[in-house]
Write a structure and sequence with these properties.
7 helices; alpha+beta; binds flavin mononucleotide; about 15% strand; about 190 residues; globular
């Protein structure tokens, strides 16, 4: 039993998805520390077949969100149509920085590599008191007819596919509750085979 919380355990416990960000940009030093954490995640066979796109250009972010909303309005799934109709809906919650993670399409287990990097990003952010939200809704953009156009505009390498985005920024007073955790998903196998 660990009876003393260290910094990593504290960051893991305190991290919640942030959906309200201050407009001010995170510092370059903070961004570099977060990217360094991403690059230090484990990868299968140390393949590092991932790619990180840092988007801080508001025009680009708003353009992505506008296009995602247009796609959602026509996707035929009521949940997403309603979401897109909400004038306050912003895929990235107006975060000033978004890191897009993409993966080399043929590499084995590369999605797991990217998920490990994403977790490092959000925990590093939390340790720096920066809010984050793991976002996959961006997938609507990259699987649409405009996906290749955006891949080119964003400089995503040829042969790489979108995996996820992480929105980052200073927290703006939100205090999300801890979602209930179901401990019944853990099974302890005792000895005696
Ligand atoms: C794979 C994955 C995809 C997610 N996609 C979205 C998303 O598109 N939009 C969003 O607002 N949150 C997204 N989330 C955040 C989850 O909703 C959130 O982690 C969950 O509700 C638990 O809350 P917590 O992060 O505050 O603990 C995603 C999380 C994961 C792990």
């Amino acid at each position: 039993m660990v009876n003393q919380m260290n910094e990593i355990l504290t960051a893991i416990k305190n991290r919640r998805s942030t959906r309200k960000f201050k407009p001010s940009q995170i510092s370059e030093v903070e961004l570099q520390a977060i990217l360094d954490a991403a690059l230090n995640a484990p990868t299968a066979k140390n393949q590092q077949k991932w790619h990180f796109t840092v988007i801080q250009n508001k025009v680009m972010l708003d353009n992505m969100v506008k296009t995602i909303k247009e796609i959602l309005l026509n996707c035929g799934m009521e949940f997403y149509v309603q979401r897109a109709r909400d004038p306050n809906y912003h895929t990235f919650y107006k975060a000033p920085t978004v890191i897009l993670i993409s993966a080399e399409e043929k590499a084995d287990f590369v999605q797991l590599d990217c998920a490990a990097a994403a977790e490092n990003i959000i925990l590093a952010a939390e340790s720096l008191k920066i809010g984050s939200c793991f976002i996959t809704a961006t997938n609507f953009l990259f699987t649409s007819s405009r996906g290749n156009e955006f891949k080119q505009k964003l400089g995503i390498p040829t042969g790489y596919n979108f995996v996820c985005t992480i929105a980052l920024g200073y927290k703006d007073g939100e205090n999300p509750a801890i979602p209930p955790k179901n401990k019944e998903v853990i099974n302890y196998v005792d000895g005696g085979m």
